[in-house]
Amino acid sequence: MKKNYTFFILLVAPIFFLSCNKNTDSLSPYTNIDNPLKAGEILIPVKADPSFAWAPAAGSVNLGDLEITGSSEPFMIAIGDANAAGYRDGGLYRQGQLTSYPNLVARQMGLTNFKQPLFDKEYGNGTGYLVRERSSAMPFFQEVTNNTAWTERGSVYLKPYNGTAVNNFAIPGSGNNIFHLNPGQELAAYVDYYKHNPKPADFSNVNYLWVNQRLNASLANRFAGNGKESLNDYLKTIRPDLALVESGLDVFISANINGGNGYPYGGSEFTWELYIHNYLKEKGTKYVYATVPDVIDFPYFHWFNYDQLMKKSGKAIGVKADDSDHSMAATPESLFLPTANVANIFNKTFKNPHLMDSDVIRKTEIARPNFYNDLLVRWSKEYNYAVVDFYSVYKKIIAGKYISEDGFKIDPSYPNGNFFSADGIYPTAIGQAVLANEVIKVLNTTHHAQIPLINITRYANEMDQVK
């Protein structure tokens, strides 16, 4: 049985800036990992910005009751996790930011004042990202390490954002812990801690694509507060007319990435969600809140399976629980995570007598968002906000039954589909456009607007040219 935990510090981050730095004089923490699913580094030019030539002209869209009397356009913000930030392919980079669904919605609304903390073009590869080798029988990745925004190799500090105040506050692993704290102080404390405390010995096994790294603080530190101590301090100074909100997504992703936890909320549950509701209610903001997809459906959790690994192993696969001295055999219902241990079974190089609890999710340990989503729907009546049902949208996509209004087929397969990015978790640019259209449908219905949907066929053709 796995130990329960409360998620407010775990988040996802590509590990190249930790694992590849051999400079022992670096002030930032790093871990050298002999990773069986990483093929090395690759240099790729910064991807081109989309033209957005297909988007409506500013001021040309009927926004219904979202129109602001005496104002040229409504002031919209986004609060969310990795999806709303545009995180994909195991990283956050400029093109991903530009194709985030909040930015796509803003473009379709004809807004000109929706600002994001974009990486400069020179450093447009952002945090770096992953490129999947499609010919490999198992997931195998190269890491893009050129033109990134890290101040130096191995650092947890990113080059600052020097633009105007932002509207998109979405950050991977978002929540109370980053909105109410000074991110610069958080990073300094993190670096200081790991200067004197080594990573755990088993760190090299779990989450081969992800680490318990303060990526949310690294990203927030680029633009936090527009001169304020925290993002929360800055939010208090603005009065948005419209907000796009998501929460909980990275909580459920991380709970499952770490071997399953059942229901991941603990003693401080829902403080972040209630803060968002009360903040927007106080400001008189209209908003749309997204439900959380059933993340266990995502390809990442199905890269390896029981039958496949049993053939490789040639014998029963034992799993040792955290609170037991004995191992139990994995079952066909077990989900095998892409850890170094599991990859080594696939490669027939596994030397240990059993897997660890963190390598496997048992059926009873799957973290599912049903109760959480029920709360979001229930609160929508109390706080008078609209709900966009990403849970149902993802189910339809994963069932292979989603076709856009212009006839474009959404393919959930991995790695050759068009919805999931290389990391097997977050959407591609096309996937983001699908989410944007679902938000637009809700805005049109709820606020009597006539915001045009993105023509996904035309959009996909352009993205194919700038990939």
- Kindly state the mean pLDDT as a whole number? 87
Which value, in Å, is the CA radius of gyration? 22 Å
Instruction: Choose one word for the global shape.
Output: globular
The main sheet comes to: 4 strands, parallel
Structural class from helices and strands?
alpha/beta
Numbering strands along the chain, what is their spatial order in the largest sheet? 2-5-6-12
In CATH terms, what is the architecture?
A: 3-Layer(aba) Sandwich
| Number of separate domains | 1
Question: Residue ranges: pLDDT <50 for 5 or more in a row?
Answer: 3-33
Please indicate the percent range of residues in DSSP E strands (runs of 2 or more). Answer: 5-15%
The rounded distance between the terminal residues' Cα atoms is: 43 Å
Instruction: Write the CATH fold name.
Output: Rossmann fold
Number of helices: 16
> Total strand count, please?
12
InterPro entries: SGNH_hydro_sf (IPR036514)
Protein name: GDSL-like Lipase/Acylhydrolase
GO molecular function: hydrolase activity, acting on ester bonds
SSE inventory with pairings:
Layout: H1 16-19, E1 38-42, E2 76-79, H2 82-85, H3 94-98, H4 101-108, E3 129-132, E4 141-144, H5 176-179, H6 183-196, H7 215-223, H8 231-235, E5 242-246, H9 249-257, H10 271-283, E6 286-290, H11 306-313, E7 318-320, E8 327-329, E9 335-336, H12 340-346, E10 355-356, E11 360-361, H13 370-383, E12 386-388, H14 390-398, H15 429-447, H16 456-465
Parallel strand pairs: 1-4, 2-5, 5-6, 6-12, 7-10
Antiparallel strand pairs: 3-4, 7-8, 9-11
Helix pairs in contact: 4-15, 6-7, 15-16
